[in-house]
Amino acid sequence: MINQNNFLLVLSILVLGVFMGRWLQQRSKQRRARSWPTVEGKVNSAGVRLEKQGENQSALIAEVGYSYSLNGETSAGVLRRTFFIANRANRWINAYPGGRSVAVRYNPKNGKDSVIDERDRVLESYL
What we know:
This protein has 127 residues and is of the alpha+beta class. It has helices spanning 4-33, 86-94, 118-126; strands at 38-52, 58-70, 73-83, 101-107, 110-115. A five-stranded antiparallel sheet has the order 3-2-1-4-5. It is elongated, with a radius of gyration of 17 Å. The relative contact order is 0.18.
């Protein structure tokens, strides 16, 4: 029979596994997108929300909503990062004020598939 401590340990491992899976999936897409063409986009929204991740687990999800036009068609996307410290999450979204122009990398095979590569933002600050 599983006691409460073992149950919490298993639950924590599962939650960590979900975070790692999302992180690996996101990093894989970011890596593939490095060779994708870019188009100018605009930040539409930025915010932080608390998301419950289980019985006793929660995380701060920072999201930046953006839109871009490609071949006369407007598309949108969301850049998400998970934080455990509110100050860091707020500092991260403050780099994406509403209306700000951002470089959007889009999949040339599917223009609705896009990402904002955070490294592009860092490069912009040096120009």
